[in-house]
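Now for a chain:

_____
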Amino acid sequence: MQMKQFGLGDIVEMKKAHPCGTNAWKIIRMGADIRMKCTGCEHSVLLPRSRFEKRLKRILASANEPDAME
């Protein structure tokens, strides 16, 4: 099983939606714990890395992808 690569500033989708109805979260802190902020209501949640990795569904937008700046 391949581990998903995620980083600081990425927008991720979790398996369960937040009670506000949004399913997209922005990673704002990484370490042994992962802090993420709901993109809908700005609520912040701290999860242990192991629990975060189990609940991660997919990465919606990567922070380190080069944007088209023209």
